Every structure is written in structure tokens, then in C-alpha cells.
Structure to design on (776 residues):
């Protein structure tokens, strides 16, 4: 894989951007290379075999890129799948799925995981009996080739997030291939819905930053008042925990245009850990692809426990529930990301001491557009204070 | 409310389109009218009172517009809220919320339900203690004024659905008000994300029909191959049960441009009842607004149990589970929509007799694009056979 490194300037610090994703030609070469090895093993009357990285938390490390950035990465341990009487079905499924995915990439088509499963119904004895069988084979191939499944042109059912603001997204007409510019300042009250695969997109923008928000409701408020025009930014709505496509879109855009990424979620453990941390460093059980899906540029704008005091939100908070307290305590004790960043430990400890959580809509207590007129301008004036 | 009726031609039959939604001016007049009555009651030293329709299934009827169309509608029974010692808090909340919503409409701003709740934190003694209190007041006002909450400029958290194809959506720049045309043939591999409120949108299209599909995955396949260009249609993805915004968008577009609506879901009770029936006639517990959110033009394209036979999908089906069987039997016995349409009863009975369900991705069994090359063209050639 081409691991072209590029330099990125963010908040005045130089950081190293991640690997460039494999292009379609490279993916096909990888599949051909692996298939060629199997073919020659067979001709040489050797047992054909495939090597897959072990996909488990025990085979994961937290990779630090510098003081403030890192992601979960898969370690070297591999498992071997040799052709035997016991493995013949899985082995055949892996090879046929490789052929199927190569065909999809070669014809520039797309395929859903559910279609992988159904398409195999014509394979006779080696058809997949259940969806999880197909998923495992796809995940194994993804890990073996060190690509993400979007590079196999695999699409997910989940929607990718909404985008508006000062950006032109360069796409192509899927049928004719002619280039298409989508101007996200010209979508009215609506938004650009990020497609499942974003590898082929290019970007034109003079925006200063990307503002990623948790709720679609806040996104609509920011868009309704064209906040992105006044702040010269791009706004992205995650609608909760960000999907792979949303994370990859923000990552590619931030890498390509060297933009800082500011994240605005509810002030609770779910917002901090499940949403922000997933966007920034990825998730533990998908370590073999986190490298593509993490957004190391991400910085946390708010809502922090300190914001509750500064912006007088006390009477718009909610008491922490048991599940919040447990999640925060577990994170302080066990989460390598939190342990790595003392600012985050302090944030969780402050939240536990205050005993309350706060939502990003809470600013409406002052007035509906306080969040636009007061909170965001004040916070954005001092990005160096954002949490890592 | 202006109940301007317009004639629509669909599948050769003449049908009557529904009421035109109240414009912003009308909503403000309604609020002023109600507030004026309260004011004069107080001046005349009468106890002020408000009348709300009872929002319960017992106050709902199934309204038939003709042989094949109808929706759940609220009946006339009303409940009175008079100012007394016991009702003073709810009464005050209702009046203040009326004022708040009038202000939002007057300034052409938007507001989320969560913001209604938080904004009331400054109301002192009559603040909402919990979100459901605020929701009830909003729902009551919606029923009292016979508007939908989108006409109060209330937005939901849920996203509205994805759109692509032969249509230009006429919107405005939210900040400047300048008109904006969004050409949905020029979005590349991405889609138009329907905003929470669609009342202000206008449409330009020469499409022949709207194709509404259950899964985003199928939507992306249709879009990837620009199916909408070959079929001259507009494609909409619901991503499961359609949101209010998605239903309202399809309804307004279909009314305005007099377009038939064809719906393509999985072939199971969830697809038939929870998705298709909700889109077509609305849901039982929101009868006071179904009139705006039903899509009477909708016709069911597939997947039907008969399609399993015609398109040889037997080996790509799944056995019905107990929950499917129960849902289908309950519907045959109790659902007024199913009872009204013998075609639907036959469909559910056929499904129960076959004992299997089928997904819309199952066509991938033949080949990935069989659904585009074979299934849809064959079905679309005979729309008169679609289920009502």
C-alpha cells in the first residue's frame, strides 16, 4: 500500500497525516498477487494457504504519533488458513469472495455486505448459510489486504452524515464519469448526504476549519443561520456515534485540505467517549482499519464541565445516571486514550465531582441562538484550550 | 386552514389531493386568534379556557377518500383546559409556548423540541420539569390549531431521507433568502438530505414517478447506476420506517407535481405494515396529523410473495419468525387498512402459507444488478398490478 506521508499544519503544530488509501488498481493488484500465490502453490502441489492478522483486542496496540495523537493499531500476530478437509468450505468462500470483490472493483460497481451474502447463493455447496459467515470472510480479507472495505467498493447500510458550508465536493456522474462539483453553500435548508464510499471524492475549500456536531438539530440551526458563512467553516452532523463513512469523510477532507477539526457534542460520557473518542482514535474492535477511520486532527470544543460554570448552565443540567458514572470511572481506570491525556482524566473527574451532564441544546436556556451568538464565537476564539 | 383541493391523475384514476398546509401567516393568525379569545375572556372576567381534541385511538376514524385511499383521522371529541388552581401551570405553559412558537415563526427561525424544553428554563415556576411535559404541550397545540409541528417551524432530530434523480428542488438561502435551485442529477454518488421542514420547498421536475425504497444500500445501487436517468424518475431512500420529514416530502412532491409513488420494501410484515402502511396512511397514535403525513398516492411495487415465485428467489428467502407470523395474523384480524384492501389480506395470507420472508437485496442471488436490469423494468411495465 502506498503510505505516502504528508505534512499537515494544525493549530500551529506540525503533524504527520496518515496513509493514503490504496487506489482501485492497487487493490486489484493485491488480490491478483494473493490469488497468484495460491495458484502457484497448487501447481507446485503444495497446500495453498492464506495468512490473516488476528482480529482481537489482544492483538491491538495504541500507537502514539506524537504527544497528543494516536490510534488503536493491529499487532503482527497472524492466523493461517491452509486448505484441509476441515477448512475447505471457508477456504473456498474466501477465494470466491476475493474473485467477487475483484470483479466489483474492476467494473467500478458497488456491493453491500447483504449482497455479498445473497450473491453467493449461486455457489452451490460453498454458499454462505448465514450473514455472519459472509461478514467474517469480508473482515478477514479486509485485514489480510490491509485495506478498508470501502476500497473493495463495499458499502454499508448506514448513512454517512450531513454536510453544509464553504466547500465544493468534487465527485463524478456515476454513469457517465463526467466530473461534478457539488457546492455545499448552495443546498438551501438541506444538506449534502455523505455517500457510503468517499475514497473517490476531492475537495475545494477555503474554509478555516471543520465543525463536527453531535445532533442533527444543532446542525440544522447552524445551517439555518448560515453560521458556516460567518465563521468560514464546514459543518458536519454525525447524528450520534459517527458512521465509518462520516469518519472517513472528515479524515480525508481534513488531511487533504489541512484543516483542523473541532468537535461539539453533549457534555456526558457518551458524547466524550462513544462519539468524540471514536471519531478521533477509532474503536477497539475494528483495530485493523482504525488507521483509515480515525481523525487525529480532532480537538474537543465542548460541552465541557467547565462550560457549565462559564456559561451558567447549572439549571439546564441533568444528574448523572449510574450508567454515566460507571462509564466515566471505567474510562479513567482502563481506557488507554483517557490515560494518555491528563486533560481528559481531569474532565471526567470534574464531571463526576459536579455530578451532572449537559446537552448541547442546553444553551437555548439563554435564548435560541445563544449557541451561535455567544458560545461558539467565545470558544472558537481560543482553540488552544480545546481538549486533545 | 386553507383546504384547497387539487385534482391528481394517477394510474389513470382521478384522485383528490389533500389539504394545503397552513402558511406562516395563517399559523400566526391562528395563534393570535386563540390568544385574543383568552385575553377577552380575562377582560370580561370570565375564566379563560382552551379546547384540545382528544389525542387517543378511541377518538380516531379511518377516513375513506375513495375505494383505495384513506387515512386515520381524529374525531371531534375535545377536552377543555380551563384556568383553575389545578391547571394553572399547564395553562401558563400552553400560553407561553404559544407565544414562543409565534415568535419563532415570526422571525422565521427554527426550534427543536429539546430547545422548547430548555428555553423554558427561564420561565421560573412554570418551567418544564421534564421533556415529556413540553412534548405534551406542543402536541396539544398542534392538535388544537390543526397544524403539523413543522408549521410551527419545529424540527425533529431524525434525518429526513435521501433523494436523487430527475428533480430540481427550489429552496432559499436561509440567511439571505435568495432562491436556490438544487439539481438532484448533479450530486454525483451522494444524495440530497431532506431537511426536517419541507413546507417551504418547491419542485421542478419532468420525472414520471417517485420510487421510494426501504434501504439506503439499494438507493446507493440505483444511484450508482443512475437508474433514475434511464427510468426518468426520482429515487428516495427511507432507511427503514420513514420519518415525518420523509413522508411529508414525498407527499408534497407527489401532490405538487401529480406524480405516482411506487414503494419498494423487503417482503415481510415489517416492510408491509411498519414501512409501507405508515408511509401511505400514517400511524395510529398520531392521527391528528396523519392528514399531512400520509401519502395516499403510494402503491406497493414489491417485494411480494408472488415475486418469490416469478423471480425464482426461493433459495434466497428466510423462514418467517414467530414475531412475523404474529404481526401478520394481528394485521389480518385487526388492522383497518388491511381489512379494507382484500389484496393486502391475500398478500399476508400467501406469505403465511409460504412461510418465508424475502429481502430486497435477495435479487443479488442472480447477479448484483439483476434488480436494475430485470426486476424493476418488469414490475414498472405493469404498475396496475401494484398492491393498493
Amino acid at each position: 500500500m502506498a503510505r505516502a506521508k504528508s505534512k499537515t499544519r494544525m493549530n500551529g503544530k506540525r503533524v504527520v497525516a496518515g496513509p493514503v488509501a490504496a487506489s482501485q488498481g492497487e487493490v486489484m493488484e493485491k488480490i491478483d498477487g494473493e490469488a497468484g500465490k495460491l495458484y502457484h502453490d497448487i501447481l507446485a502441489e503444495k497446500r495453498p494457504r492464506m495468512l490473516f492478522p488476528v482480529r482481537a483486542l489482544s492483538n491491538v496496540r495504541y500507537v502514539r504519533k506524537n504527544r497528543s495523537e494516536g490510534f488503536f493499531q493491529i499487532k503482527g500476530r497472524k492466523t493461517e488458513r491452509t486448505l484441509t478437509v476441515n477448512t475447505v468450505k471457508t477456504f473456498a468462500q474466501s477465494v470466491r469472495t476475493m474473485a467477487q470483490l475483484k470483479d466489483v472493483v474492476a467494473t467500478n460497481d458497488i456491493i453491500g455486505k447483504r449482497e455479498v451474502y445473497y450473491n453467493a447463493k449461486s455457489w452451490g455447496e460453498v454458499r454462505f448459510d448465514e450473514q455472519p459467515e459472509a461478514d467474517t470472510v469480508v473482515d478477514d480479507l479486509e485485514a489480510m489486504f490491509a485495506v478498508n472495505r470501502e476500497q473493495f467498493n463495499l458499502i454499508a447500510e448506514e448513512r454517512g452524515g450531513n454536510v453544509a458550508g464553504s466547500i465544493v465536493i468534487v465527485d463524478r456522474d456515476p454513469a457517465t464519469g463526467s466530473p461534478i462539483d457539488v457546492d455545499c453553500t448552495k443546498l438551501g435548508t438541506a444538506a449534502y448526504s455523505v455517500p457510503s464510499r468517499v475514497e473517490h471524492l476531492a475537495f475545494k475549500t477555503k474554509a478555516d476549519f471543520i465543525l463536527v456536531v453531535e445532533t442533527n438539530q444543532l446542525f440544522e440551526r447552524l445551517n439555518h443561520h448560515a453560521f458556516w458563512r460567518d465563521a468560514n467553516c464546514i459543518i458536519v452532523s454525525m447524528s450520534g456515534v459517527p458512521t465509518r463513512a462520516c469518519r472517513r469523510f472528515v479524515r480525508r477532507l481534513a488531511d487533504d485540505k489541512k484543516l483542523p477539526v473541532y468537535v461539539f457534542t453533549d457534555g456526558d460520557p457518551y458524547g466524550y467517549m462513544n462519539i468524540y473518542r471514536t471519531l478521533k482514535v477509532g474503536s477497539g474492535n475494528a483495530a485493523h482499519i482504525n488507521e483509515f477511520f480515525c481523525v487525529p486532527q480532532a480537538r474537543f470544543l465542548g460541552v465541557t464541565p467547565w462550560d457549565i460554570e462559564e456559561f451558567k448552565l447549572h439549571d439546564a443540567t441533568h444528574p448523572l445516571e449510574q450508567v454515566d458514572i460507571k462509564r466515566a470511572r471505567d474510562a479513567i481506570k482502563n481506557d488507554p486514550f483517557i490515560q494518555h491525556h491528563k486533560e481528559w482524566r481531569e474532565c471526567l473527574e470534574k464531571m463526576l465531582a459536579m455530578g451532572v451532564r449537559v446537552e448541547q441544546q442546553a444553551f437555548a436556556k439563554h435564548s435560541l441562538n445563544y449557541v451561535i451568538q455567544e458560545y461558539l464565537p467565545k470558544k472558537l476564539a481560543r482553540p488552544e484550550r480545546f481538549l486533545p
The radius of gyration of chain B is 23 Å. Chain B has a mean pLDDT of 86.
